[in-house]
TrEMBL record:
An annotated GO cellular component: peroxisome
Enzyme kind, highest EC tier: lyase
Record-annotated Thiamine pyrophosphate enzyme TPP-binding domain positions: 229-319
Gene that encodes it: Hacl1
Keywords: Lyase, Magnesium, Metal-binding, Thiamine pyrophosphate
Needed co-factor(s): thiamine diphosphate
InterPro entries attached to this UniProt entry: DHS-like_NAD/FAD-binding_dom, HACL1-like, THDP-binding, Thiamin_PyroP_enz_cen_dom, TPP_enzyme_TPP-bd
Record-listed E.C. numbers: 4.1.2.63
The keyword Membrane is annotated on this UniProt entry: no
Annotated protein name in UniProt: 2-hydroxyacyl-CoA lyase
Amino acid sequence: GAAYSRAENNIRKLVDLCGLPFLPTPMAKGVVPDNHPNCVAAARSMALQHADVIILLGARLNWILHFGLPPRFRQDVKVIQIDICAEELGNNVRPAAILLGDINGVTKQLLEEFSKRPLKYPSNSEWWKRLREKIINNEERSKGLALQKSLPMNYYTVFHHIRELIPKDWILVSEGANTMDIGRTMLPNYYPRQRCGIFFVVLTQQAKSMYKCFHLAKCKYFSILPNASFCRYNLPVLIIVVNNNGIYTGLDADAWKEMLKFGDPATCVPPVSLLPNSHYEEIMSAFGGKGYFVKTLEELQNALKASVADRQTPSLINVMIDPQSERKKQVCVCFPFLFCKL
């Protein structure tokens, strides 16, 4: 991939020179900063569905990108695939052109060719106009949800205040269902090699202990052992668990009690529901770190400020949100057997 190849400098130059819209996959977040004017992450569905030519820089046409097939993509879309693995070329969609090689090396060659034959897609094209209109529309809808003050909080409110208080130079590691999907546009990445997985946080901090690392997790992805490592080595890590008592959706404490009246929870509780109001922050406290249990916006802001100020102690903020909180309404054209990744 682009991040593993350390191709960010060449790819950023390529994006600037060609003027094309770009869309990062979760593993490539930060290779080109999310605040770059050519980033169309906030119009992802439109960009995928209506593009007539797509250049794949190390990305694979798997379930993350809907296998490159209709209805998420045009039937006649032309794919130019660049990948270091020959066995990945042509999976699911036959490319119109292929470039086999290291992403950094290939983009360097493309830049050399651009210097001889400059080509820039016009920023005033109809395609760019449609994408920008969609970006503005989606951002306005997200902003409306983010500014809601009702309790329990929703995803957008939590992410909005995280974005306001977390420094831009922190390493962001994000994962888990709606947490990662909504975070794609609500939480900008500015630096490459921002990964999924709490064990990547451990490795990052062992290699670069001078950086504060911020791990955003869904409660199902929370793990005990890394917390012991964080505290053992006093790693400057902040974990935020966005806790809706489930996977995608959960049950509040009252609904959980009512559900138990029907019998064994193994058979009558929905499989996506987890134990309500679990205190994940106590695991961090047990190892000597700082834990915060948050239910209100004021509590969230205070916990974030305290965690940001303390560069010596790992922290965990367990943020309770509405169990039924979901993404803003989507126009879904996905395969019915997959979790929607709009």
